[in-house]
Design a protein that fits this description.
Distance between the termini: 49 Å
CATH superfamily of one domain: Vaccinia Virus protein VP39
Largest sheet: 7 strands, mixed
Shape: globular
CATH architecture of one domain: 3-Layer(aba) Sandwich
Mean pLDDT: 88
Order of helices and strands: HHHEHEHEEEHEHEHHEHHEE
Number of strands: 10
CATH topology of one domain: Rossmann fold
Strand content: 15-25%
Helix content: 25-40%
Low-confidence stretches: none
């Protein structure tokens, strides 16, 4: 199978034997890189922004897989702990198996709580999105409904309430701006942020809403790896 899976009958998705066998294959049998775990080796660059022996706190929105294509697994191996959030309960089941030291949450993240539409193109898909424009024109997407909450509300319900985030990574397939604006930066003040861009030049990147929003809060771009931009807080966030 490729990165995305076809839509399955609802009865099969709910079948516990199928889910157990699927997760066993997904977590333990698929080939993984031993040099890096992120999709474009972002985790190597991310680690360089923190002391080698640091044990910090991360938040991963749109976490997908506990090891593969994951920006926080390298940090987890070094003793970091954090909160992993994904809209799919099957993905969070995998995190509970391989990342039991983390707080793992099933929820959609948006800039206001309540029921929202989302678009899925298959079981355990890499590209589920709350952004209709992202899904528009692409084959295989089905519209569904799910309850969403703000990132602040989700974190407030964990043991990490009001703790400064050392590393925040967001992969929300076109909904990243809404995720970022749902966080109370005055209280959580992420030190390093990873977020995707599909722009191809720096001139285009700096005009994006995300870049404008983060630079307005005292962040600067410190790296660009694959599709991922890294922003570091250079001045204290406004109080």
């Amino acid at each position: 199978m490729g990165l995305n899976y076809k839509h399955l009958p609802a009865w099969l998705e709910r079948n516990q034997i199928f889910r157990t066998l699927f997760l066993f294959r997904k977590l333990f049998l698929l080939k993984k890189s031993f040099r890096h775990h992120s999709q474009f080796a972002e985790d190597i660059s991310i680690a360089l922004h923190f002391p080698k022996k640091a044990k910090g706190f991360f938040v991963d929105v749109g976490c997908f897989h506990p090891v593969k294509y994951n920006n926080t697994y390298r940090l987890y191996q070094k003793g970091w702990r954090g909160v992993n959030i994904d809209i799919d309960d099957i993905k969070i089941q995998g995190f509970k198996i391989l990342r039991p030291g983390d707080t793992n949450v099933v929820c959609a993240v948006s800039n206001k709580p309540g029921e929202v539409n989302y678009w899925s193109n298959g079981f355990y898909s890499l590209t589920i999105t709350l952004d209709e424009q992202f899904a528009s024109g692409k084959p295989g997407y089905l519209k569904k409904k799910v309850n969403a909450d703000t990132l602040t509300n989700i974190l407030d319900a964990t043991p990490y309430k009001d703790r400064t985030i050392d590393f925040l990574t967001v992969d929300a397939e076109g909904h990243d701006y809404q995720v970022l604006t749902s966080l109370d930066f005055d209280r959580y003040q992420p030190r390093l942020i990873a977020v995707e861009t599909h722009k191809t030049t720096l001139d285009e990147v700096v005009k994006e809403d995300i870049c404008q929003y983060l630079t307005g809060k005292g962040y600067v771009i410190v790296n660009w790896v694959g599709l991922t931009l890294l922003f570091r807080r250079e001045v204290p966030s406004p109080v």
